[in-house]
Amino acid sequence: MTAPRTSERSAAPHVDAGRVHVCFAYDIGQAIDLVAAERRITADKQRSTIRHRRRAPAYFEYAPAPLRVTQPVAPLRIEAWGTEALVDAVLFDFGAVSVRYSIPLHGPLVELRTLSDALYDHPGLLAGSRAVVRQLLDAVAPAVSRAALADLVEDYALYHLERLSPGCSPAELLTDHRLLLAQLLRAENVLLSPQEVDDALSCRIAFGPDDLTVIDWNAALVVGPGAEDVLTVLEFANVELLELRFLDDRLDEALDQSYEVLARRFRGRFGLEPGRGADLWRIGRLQVDHAMLYEGVNNALKLVGDPYLARVLRLAATRFHLPDWDASILRKLQTLDSIYQKLADRAAARRMELLEWIIILLIALSIVVTFLPGAAHK
Fold this sequence. Notes:
Blueprint: E1 14-27, E2 31-32, H1 34-40, E3 44-47, E4 67-72, E5 77-78, E6 81-82, E7 86-91, E8 96-108, H2 112-119, H3 123-140, E9 144-145, E10 154-165, H4 170-176, H5 178-186, H6 194-200, E11 204-205, E12 212-215, E13 219-223, H7 228-263, H8 276-298, H9 307-319, H10 322-370
Parallel strand pairs: 10-13
Antiparallel strand pairs: 1-8, 1-10, 2-9, 3-4, 4-7, 5-6, 7-8, 11-12, 12-13
């Protein structure tokens, strides 16, 4: 059942200029040496920076700057639209890659409902983006620590409406076409309830009267010219979500392994447990690896110099539930640390017990030796 258009206050405007950017985030390793990776890539590349629309101090930037690679790809047809023949891939030093496809927009805004529905879990874009990442990984593998393309992927659509006609301000668009915008963000053609519409449009922000950003869990809508900085921040938020999900999954596996070690029965003579040192080393390595990845993701983008973009990122973090992922990861890191401490304490206790037995045996041996024949003459 398609949504009736009579619920809108006026005819939907026409998109004169715009694009939808479809982003796919992947994890390809523990870390990437961006300098070494840059030397190995022959495609068009540059260190990615944020092009500011507003005044911002020089220290507001990525740390370190990601590597953006632009390369040709075969265009894909999606309903009546087609992707551009170039694709951008951004490599981050903490082991993530974001692939961005761009689709030019021109036509009635109402038709974007069909496009958003077609883009949802589009198999061609997913397969194409994974092929781009595999090709990149083959090229830069020596610069990647523990290189491996993870199965997990996080996709996100960024609808950028640069110019609409007839003249329609972002405030009017949000007021008069709420249902259409909610359907676009949720990739739904069915009639949505008022509560669903309100929820889809609840996370929004604007810098001036001529721009608007609405952030939802599946897609974001950016209205106004020159919004590359906002698009870049939202693309990074999608990468951050991917890395937090990936880290959470890895911590689950690490905890399962640690629980098995902790529950292992004592074996060996004198209460010794073979392999305990190796177990402690492995769990300690897991702690360090996961803590470094967590810090790398959270410290990759410095937003203290631009309050507006900082608010955009906080809004995206709220919609993506990043604080909940953070809390889950910190809790699991603490649990992993607790298991490590228990194993270390138990190993120390076993060593002390062994030393006590050695001392007892030595004392007993010294006593026995005194009663041996001839011992008194020595």
